[in-house]
Design goal:
Length: 177
């Protein structure tokens, strides 16, 4: 396994920076001994809400096997300009995920993230801007598609894979153009 993705407390609230930094440092050390890395994913409904919050924790932990997982949905739903991720040092990025969303949140943020995501380029988020910002960091690791939606779960697996591939390839091509 290349990377284990983790997150903060999904119920939100505030986190104790010293405790979270120490726990990430320990987890990164354990991951390193197992030959993998750990990526902290900020989520706007969690206690670690933004990429900057996650970067602060990762820098505090100070272990090369600990990094940030970036997801366009979470950056967009946090109300951040996609360009803000361009300032994250590439060596702190553990992985990147693409998807999309409608302009309006449907239900709570948690319900929206679990049931109403769109394929990259089929919603209203600035997916191309996000991809460009991540590329500007010099990040050269893997990109993934994280599709969580009722519509996606109802698709035939072959159709789901084709659409994920085609929409993601389209977003990446649009960035290269």
């Amino acid at each position: 396994m290349r990377c284990i993705k983790i997150g903060g407390r999904l119920s939100g609230g505030t986190y104790e920076p010293d405790r979270v930094v120490a726990e990430l440092a320990l987890l990164a050390e354990q991951a390193d001994r197992a030959g993998t890395t750990v990526g902290l994913e900020p989520m706007p409904f969690a206690d670690i809400r933004t990429p900057q919050d996650a970067l602060d924790v990762v820098i505090g932990a100070g272990h090369p096997a600990g990094g940030i997982f970036l997801d366009v949905w979470h950056v967009g739903r946090a109300g951040l300009d996609m360009a803000t991720v361009a300032d994250i040092p590439a060596h702190h990025i553990a992985g990147v995920e693409l998807d999309d969303a409608d302009a309006e949140v449907r239900g709570s943020l948690l319900e929206d993230t679990l049931h109403h995501r769109r394929f990259p380029g089929e919603g209203d988020l600035d997916v191309v801007g996000f991809v460009s910002a991540v590329a500007a960091t010099g990040y050269g690791g893997p990109w993934g598609v994280e599709m969580l939606s009722r519509e996606f779960r109802a698709l035939d697996p072959g159709e789901a894979a084709r659409r994920a591939h085609d929409t993601t390839a389209g977003a990446l091509r649009a960035t290269a153009a």
